[in-house]
Amino acid sequence: MIVEDLTPVGVLAGRLAAGDPLALREAFDRWSRLVHTVARSALGSVADADDVTQQVFIAAWNSRASLRATDESLPAWLLGICRLKVIDALRARSRGLRNDEAMHSEGMRSDQGQPAGLDSVVDAVVVRDALDALGDPRGRVLRMVYLEDRTHEDVAAALQLPLGTVKSHVRRGLEKLRGIFEEVDSGV
Fold first, then answer.
1. How far is CA 59 from the centre of its chain?
2. How many angstroms separate the CA atoms of 102 and 82, rounded?
3. Please, which residues have CB within 8 angstroms of residue 72's CB and are 6 or more apart in sequence?
4. Model confidence pLDDT, tens digit, residues 122-169
5. Which residues make beta-bridge pairs with 115?
6. Which of 1, 5, 132, 180 is deepest in the core (most CB within 10 A)?
7. What ranges do the domains of the chain cover?
């Protein structure tokens, strides 16, 4: 698929929410590799990641009514589903263990039976995609302020923008990110 031929994310989300199976196929083509990478990183197994990837897109189809038709955060929504399916896979894996000590082995959290790094991997991917969805200059301003730890004044000077504009981009960008993350946290 050529980049110029990609359906805008909001349009694709609307088609998927309306029940268009071709929209699901396009979403799979565009984001299955991302979902698979996150699942493989969390699970450490290609076979398990394959299963989770399939489950994510089945769940996306079955839960399409919860997707807003104008939603620009379709990849984040899919990663939210992925997170839940990875947790399910890890719980199923831990149920198969014969002794409780194995469940609490190094690198496992006893409260949920999931790798301690899972949340950070998924969160990092969700944040990166959400910032990408914001576009420039808003996404760039947020990256500079929060990821590069630069002051608003420094960002304004670097981007040759008025200070008030930088502050507006930060405020509006954070509002948009909050909406994206609330949607991801609501799960499917």
1. 15
2. 25
3. 9, 10, 13, 133
4. 666 667 777 777 778 888 888 888 777 788 998 899 999 999 999 998
5. 108
6. 180
7. 3-108
Task: Kindly report the CATH class assigned to 3-108.
Answer: mainly alpha
- Cα 176 from Cα 183, distance rounded (Å): 11
- Beta-bridge mates of residue 30: none
DSSP the chain: --GGGPPPHHHHHHHHHTT-HHHHHHHHHHHHHHHHHHHHHHH--HHHHHHHHHHHHHHHHHTGGGS-TT-S-HHHHHHHHHHHHHHHHHHHHHHT-SSHHHHT-TTB-TTTSSBTTHHHHHHHHHHHHHHHHH-TTHHHHHIIIIIS---HHHHHHHHT--HHHHHHHHHHHHHHHHHHHHHHHH--
Taking a C-beta distance cutoff of 8 angstroms, is the pair 126, 74 a contact?
no
Q: What is the C-alpha separation between 54 and 32, in angstroms, rounded?
A: 9
Q: Which residues contact 93 (CB under 8 A, 6 or more apart)?
A: 48
> What's the pLDDT tens digit per position in 168-188?
988 888 888 777 666 656 654
Half-sphere exposure (CA, 13 Å, Cβ side) for 22? 4
